[in-house]
Write a structure and sequence with these properties.
extended; single chain; alpha+beta; 33 helices; six-stranded antiparallel beta sheet
């Protein structure tokens, strides 16, 4: 096909494209690439399938979609001027404001058509624009699926089943000449509705109530219900064809009449330009970066605190998967945040591969080995890991607490929280923020408006706008989560986030590092049994202090409180009283208060006085009076104790429960081994087996890289060459029927192949492989020897070797069809 010949089909239009344009189509619509089409015809067929067209339409911006909707109600094919008129109107309501809007539409329309052409949704030159048939079916009006434009069917479509007599009555009432030809009658009525002057005269005679009925239908939906005895205004409109019957109780405003009433416009409000993202505040960029850095540091500490609290084994997993409501509340209380925020941190930690199921029979959540590696990183690198995870993850914690399609509750870490659109929405929201000046905090409503313009949902193909609502909710969650994570500060995008998006993790970490406070190696001990950490602590100091004291409050400074239970916890971990005194003296900038020293000595003196072992379990103590005291205490009844010897008691419960029971009674027992040695419990010893982070659920096929696109285009071109090549049959053989294999004798095959190898010409061959599958190929023989022919296969776009005995026959190509 020459470039000057108008294409007759979508396949011909695609065949006329260059390789770069075909690669652009496959990049924009990657679903067309799996599997790679065999030729251009297969590519065109696949591009016209319903699923692929729906996916392509859902990725258009609002004006490109409005352009496609206008083409769906335009004649097929439609000239550029007709399409422009449907978007701008016929000029009857022009004013200064309308003129500016029409000029914007005229400026934006060529780009919209280019987008639709690149995605193979339209084809043809500007004088014959054609919408792909499947797209027209999706966007064209019908009683089941009203057009997004609000227009109804044409007069010809609405009167398709109408009797000739009824048509004659309409023509007579409308003042049109009678005709016995139904086609002429339809043409005459359509001409009336499209004639501005005659249509104006007809509407001038209409009752005011009839005009009110038209006003309710003109912008859609165009269908209305009528009673068997319609009111006079409706009867007046129906008698003149301005309302045409669809059924016994339904009428429709025909498209031609509606367009006249709309002054020729297909849409009430065309939107050629995206709405601007407006600012609510302009802040100092340095203040934004400092606020974001502080929140980033808090985010890292929150994740670490969550994992420390689950170090010995976290909450049990529900049978259906996920975290129970009660456990989520406990986690929220421990982190001092709300439940939705706790769900966000739990989900982010899980997505980052730091938290997983332990896989035991009594399945619980626990930190993974990757947590230990993550915890050793500098704070800025730990934040980068969390931020990059958040950008790519498809799990949406904002859904926690809601219900799925079957009415089942959605739980944190449970199934059905993946939403493939989440990463794309997050990146788009951050891109809009990055386009603003540094320090600019956007208005969330204008961000949502911009996103809806970029990815509107076609009302004809979605129910109740669920997808639009989900994308809007994800965008709002993105803004909130960005602030929690330190992506933004005071609503504006931080400099380290811009670096993360533009340059990568290393640059982001380098910008964030100077803004994160240096960890301290000291605390301030106070006489009320508390310690104040005036900033972040070095990791060994923080770990030891968290074992020795309980966190009482957090903020700019963290307050720890020493209690008998917390001191006993440190002693259980293998520390001695002397170790604790030395630790506090070395890390306190204030003298160690006397009450704290007394507390440590008092707990240490009683620690290990009682010994617990397995009998099922036992208690032993050198002081008989202590054992007598335990037996006399009513609270020990549940422990089911009995005396074995003056210094030993036996119990029917396990050692761990016996330890907890005696501690609740106010004692400080220590567990011992079978050899009588004190057992030391190490905090944070429980880890899951190595786990990989959950893989995000992609939204459709992945976008192919340049190498794959180039190979796919070459394969499609080669297959198209083989499929469309012109063959020349031997003079003494009948012409091969379409799709049949060529048939020649072995001698003729060998002679023809040898001649082609000498002249460098191409041949059409029939080939049967070892499995008996037959195919047709176009080859250029290079060498013939040993019963094999080595040739460049245009169909496969590679050099291959074929046994001559498997070639059914050969045929030369026409001189003007050589690849």
């Amino acid at each position: 096909m020459g470039m000057t010949t108008p294409p007759r089909t979508l396949a011909e239009a695609l065949r006329a494209r260059d390789d770069e344009s075909l690669a652009g189509l496959l990049r924009a619509r990657p679903d067309l690439l799996t599997p790679v089409p065999g030729d251009i015809t297969q590519l065109a067929t696949r591009a016209g399938t319903r699923a692929s067209v729906v996916r392509a339409l859902e990725h258009l911006d609002r004006f490109a979609l409005q352009t496609a909707e206008a083409l769906a109600v335009a004649p097929d094919p439609a000239p550029y001027e007709t399409l422009l008129g449907l978007l701008t109107g016929d000029g009857r309501d022009d004013g200064e404001q309308r003129g500016d809007a029409d000029a914007a539409i005229g400026d934006a329309l060529p780009a919209a058509l280019t987008t639709l052409r690149e995605q193979a949704l339209i084809w043809g030159e500007d004088d014959r624009l054609r919408l792909v048939r499947t797209a027209r079916e999706l966007l064209a009006p019908s009683p089941q699926h009203p057009s997004p434009t609000g227009l109804g069917p044409t007069v010809a479509e609405a009167t398709a089943g109408m009797s000739p007599g009824r048509l004659q009555d309409i023509l007579a009432t409308a003042g049109l000449p009678a005709t016995h030809d139904p086609v002429s009658a339809v043409t005459s009525l359509s001409a009336l509705f499209t004639d501005r002057a005659r249509m104006g005269e007809l509407l001038d005679t209409a009752p005011a109530e009839a005009l009110s009925v038209l006003d309710r239908l003109v912008w859609g939906p165009p269908y209305g219900e009528v009673t068997p005895n319609p009111t006079p205004p409706v009867k007046w409109l129906r008698d003149r064809g301005l309302l045409l019957p669809v059924s016994t109780r339904t009428v429709v405003l025909p498209r031609e009449a509606a367009l006249h009433l709309r002054a020729g416009r297909a849409h009430r409000v065309p939107e050629p330009q995206p709405p601007a993202v407006e600012a609510v505040a302009n802040r100092d960029p340095q203040a934004v970066d400092s606020a974001a850095a502080g929140q980033a540091f808090l985010a890292v500490n929150t994740v670490e605190e969550l994992l420390k609290s689950w170090n010995g084994g976290g909450p049990a997993i529900l049978r259906a998967g996920g975290l129970s409501v009660r456990e989520l509340k406990k986690t929220a209380t421990a982190l001092d945040v709300s439940e939705p925020v706790a769900a966000f941190w739990v989900e982010l930690t899980y997505a980052a591969g730091l938290l997983a199921s332990d896989g035991e029979a009594d399945e619980r959540y626990a930190p993974t080995p990757a947590y230990d590696d993550w915890a050793e990183l500098p704070a800025q690198d730990r934040w980068v890991h969390l931020a990059t995870t958040w950008l790519a993850v498809t799990r949406t914690p904002g859904l926690v607490g809601g219900q799925d399609a079957k009415g089942r509750a959605l739980s944190a870490l449970g199934p059905d929280l993946d939403r493939s659109a989440a990463p794309e929405v997050r990146h788009r929201v951050l891109a809009l923020l990055a386009a603003l000046q540094p320090g600019t905090a956007p208005d969330p409503e204008t961000v949502l408006s911009r996103l809806r313009w970029e990815r509107p949902l076609r009302g004809a193909s979605a129910s109740a706008g669920d997808t639009t609502d989900l994308r809007s909710r994800i965008a709002l969650w993105t803004l909130n989560e960005s602030e929690l994570l330190g992506i933004t500060g005071r609503g504006a995008l931080a400099a380290h986030t811009r670096a993360l998006l533009d340059s990568g993790p290393a640059e982001a970490a380098a910008l964030l590092a100077p803004l994160i406070p240096e960890p301290l190696d000291h605390v301030l001990l106070q006489a009320d049994l508390t310690a104040v950490a005036p900033g972040p602590l070095e990791r060994p100091l923080a770990d030891m202090l968290s074992a020795l004291a309980d966190i009482e409050s957090k903020g700019g400074a963290t307050v720890y409180r020493f209690t008998p239970g917390s001191v006993r916890r440190a002693l259980d971990a293998g520390q001695s009283a002397a170790d604790l005194h030395a630790f506090l003296a070395a890390h306190s900038r204030t003298p160690v208060p006397q009450p704290l020293s007394y507390l440590i000595d008092d707990v240490a003196r009683r620690h290990g006085h009682l010994r617990i072992g397995a009998a099922s379990s036992y208690v032993r103590c050198d002081d008989e009076a202590v054992l007598n005291e335990i037996l006399a205490d009513r609270r020990s009844a549940t422990l089911r104790l009995r005396r074995l010897a003056p210094t030993a008691l036996a119990a029917q419960i396990d050692p761990a429960s016996l330890l907890d029971g005696l501690r609740e009674m106010g004692y400080a027992p220590a567990a011992e081994s079978a050899e009588g040695d004190v057992l030391i419990t190490r905090a944070g010893a429980r880890r899951t087996p190595p786990r990989t982070a959950p893989v995000p659920v992609p939204e459709g096929p992945p976008v192919p890289d340049t190498t794959l696109l180039g190979a796919a285009v070459r394969a499609i071109r080669a297959g198209d060459t083989a499929a469309t090549v012109v063959r020349k049959d031997p003079a003494d053989a009948p012409a091969a029927s379409s799709g049949s294999l060529p048939r020649t004798t072995s001698a003729e095959t060998l002679a023809t192949v040898q001649a082609a190898a000498m002249t460098g010409s191409a041949l059409w061959i029939g080939y049967v492989n070892a499995d008996g599958a037959a195919s047709q190929r176009v080859i250029a023989p290079v060498r013939v020897e040993g019963g094999f022919v080595t040739a460049y296969d245009h169909t496969a776009d590679e050099v291959r070797t074929y046994p001559l005995h498997r070639i059914t026959g050969v045929a030369e190509l026409a001189d003007d069809a050589t690849p």
